[in-house]
Amino acid sequence: MEDCLAKKMEITVSEAEKRTGRNAMNIQETYTAYLIETRAVESQSEGQCAPVESLWRRYSEFELLRNYLSVTYPHIVVPPLPEKRADFVWHKLSADNMDPDFVERRRIGLENFLLRVASHPVLCQDKIFYAFLMQEGGWKEMVNETGFQLKADSRLKALNATFRVKNPDKRFTELKHYSDELQSVISHLLRVRARVADRLYGVYKVHGNYGRVFSEWSAIEKEMGDGLQSAGHHMDVYAASIDDILEEEEHYADQLKEYLFYAEALRAVCRKHELMQYDLEMAAQDLTSKKQQCEELATGTVRTFSLKGMTSKLFGQETPEQREAKIKILEEQIQEGEEQLKSKNLEGRDFVRSAWADIERFKEQKNHDLKEALISYAVMQISMCKKGIQVWTNAKECFSKM
Amino acid sequence: DASLVEVNSFSPSVPISPSSMTNQYRFEDGPELRDLFITVDDPESHITAIETFITYRVVTKTTRGEFDSSEYEVRRRYQDFLWLKSKLEEAHPTLIIPPLPEKFIIKGMVERFSDEFIETRRKALHKFLNRIADHPTLTFNEDFKIFLTAQAWELSSHKKQGPGLLSRMGQTVRAVASSVRGAVRNRPEMFTEMNNYLETFSQKINLLDKIAHRIYKEEREYFNEMKEYGPIYTLWSASEEDIAESLKGIASCIDRCCRATEQRMAGLSEHLLPILHEYVLYSEILMGVLKRRDQIQGELDSKVDALANKKTEKDLFSEEIGKLEDKVERANNALKADWDRWKQNMQWDMRSTFTNVAENNLRYYEE
Questions:
Q1: Which residue in chain A has the smallest CA separation from B356?
Q2: Residues near A248 by Cβ (< 8 Å), separated by ≥ 6?
Q3: Rounded-to-integer distance, Cα A234 and Cα A211, Å
Q4: CATH code where residue A250 lies
Q5: Where is the PX domain (chain B) (predicted)?
Q6: Which residue of A160, B7, B113, B148 sits 20 to 30 Å from the alpha carbon of B231, by its own alpha carbon?
């Protein structure tokens, strides 16, 4: 990763702003724009800081960039974008896209996306990506000029379309299976975690009621009054502490979500390979049948049933000239086909090679990131317990003084 | 603040019996001074042609002289406890009789004879008898002694000796009538304060009871979700290699958290909830006690009024009035002493209960 962009440049998504404008259908809409700031990192001599460049982008432009990257580098596991709509919410968080907390988390997610692309050995060198960061005007046109949409295979859009591949690559099949499992387990985890967070919130908040009642009760007690009052205060502290705790946990949820989406990107690579393999097999099949046809015409034997053969038997044979012409066309086609097959095979091998390189890289990244996420989650839980211990120790002291 | 009468102070104008003074400290001294030990256990169900009911074994151990033996074992049913309570109320209308567990539970969907219900009731009955035993006056009550010592048939025949149902009803009617008539007149300030205190206390304790139940419910729901949470990590670890160990680690931590939560809930239901409930009942009892005191005072007042109207027959009346005045004074004293005692106990109970809750929570978080 020595030459990747991330090392040469500081990239941040520093602000988010609400805007109104007219969309493609000339309808007024509100959207959020994000400020991307970049600054070249060079060995900084004292007091000298490279200038900060900045431009505004909205979410749809990020989407366009990602689509472009996925199509242009089908063998790469392309980093995912943060979710379009808030999902796996628990009751306190709103599902509103304009909600400031959601916008803030999305800002962080977009920054993370850019950093991931910038640290990827292959993706960071892409010119469109660079232009995304540096060139405000005319970027959309630039992307469309690459004509990447033509390369995008519409068959991949049908998520569940199956291609019957005769010789599937076992490694890719296993990988696809893994990505499915990962997706399902993480989404289940996120759902249950959201429910657990909900319940925990309830437990803490009801303790807040203690605070109020203790305080009212302490008004009529002579000896117990002070103890009750201060204990009530601690109950309030306890109830309030859950807000910070759960916000920190959201961060953990976001880390998991990233890999939920990464799993989809992984799956996409497998599908592309499947498609490639399918095309290869179809091409080979086509070539074989053409060769057979040629042979039949040349030798006059019909080994396989064909409608043409039947009709010619029924309505008379063709002339030798017609046959010659057909054979010639077929021979040309066969030659083309053989060349195509050769290049497809090469393509396929290249794809597999570079895909596996990236997959290995991804695996390492995933293991590292997830481990860190799990550790920080455990640390969060420990700190939550420490806070709990503190509050209840104080409360206990107050109670014992009653 | 100087105008308020300190409920816990001993104002010289109100004579206090020496026994109630020493007994005020008796509770804090603990079991060493106790000479009466009672346990309630071993619930058994009895099925007859007419009904099914539960009896509890009541074991009494004592060193007191007035008891013929030092150990007694009898079986009693809930009805018997009700009888005892009403006899105590009759004999000591202005003393604070401890609460009995309710006849039925309306809110919970607990069947009458479910194990949980029986166990809760048993504990409450045990508490009831022990509180009576600890009470400086009630502990020497004759009916109480009979309750603890008599065999089943002895108890039945003794029960039938009490004032008939009709006369008891008459008493109640008179009591209600007199309480309606200006019972608030001439009420010493101390008791008005008690009334005010009680109103707020009753409100707050009811709220606390509700809050505690709510917390228990929320914790239960939390526990249910957590039970599902841990296994997901285990499932995930099956697809992974490098991070499988970490995932399994988290899964086992979550399971331990689950167990800790269970213990926390158990702590709540064993300690906090029953005590709060007891004091909810107590606040009702106290209201009743204050009312009865008012009634007795009312009787005195009405007789005084009558005297003022009928100048003749003064002598007859004045004797009656004298008697009533004594009665009122005794009632007031008894109540005051008992009230003080009750507050001390309540304080102690609350302190220990909430400290217990705090300790539980500490244990939970340390786990």
A1: A396
A2: A380
A3: 7
A4: 1.20.1270.60
A5: 34-155
A6: A160
Task: Please indicate, yes or no, if residue A102 is contained in any of the structural domains.
Answer: no
Report DSSP letters for A360-384, one per residue.
Answer: HHHHHHHHHHHHHHHHHHHHHHHHH
Instruction: Return the number of other C-beta atoms located less than 10 Å from residue A50's C-beta.
Output: 13
pLDDT digits (tens, 9 = 90+) for B232-275: 999 998 888 888 888 888 888 888 888 878 877 887 777 778 87
Min Cα distance B343 → chain A (Å) is 10
Whose tokens are 């995932």? That residue is B247
Q: Is residue B53 classed as helix, strand or coil in its secondary structure?
A: strand
A294 alpha-carbon distance from chain centroid: 48
Please write the tens of the pLDDT for every residue from A314-331. Answer: 555 667 777 778 788 888
- CB-based contact, A186 to chain B, within 8 Å: yes
Q: In this structure, what token pair is assigned to residue B12?
A: 């010289």
Rg (CA), chain B: 26
pTM (global) more than 0.90: no
Show the domain range for A337.
Answer: 153-300+321-401
Report the gap between the CA of A311 and the closest CA in chain B (Å): 57
Q: For residue B317, what are the CA distances in angstroms to A219, B122, B183, B296, B299?
A: 45, 49, 20, 16, 13
Domains of chain B: 33-153 (3.30.1520.10), 189-366 (1.20.1270.60)
As for how many domains chain A has, the answer is 1
| A46-50, A92-96, B47-51, range with greatest mean pLDDT | B47-51
Nearest-angstrom CA–CA distance, A326 and A363? 53
Report the alpha-carbon distance of residue B178 to residue B297 in Å, rounded: 9
Q: Is B312 helix (H, G, I), strand (E, B) or coil?
A: coil
Pairing of strands B36-47, A52-58: unpaired
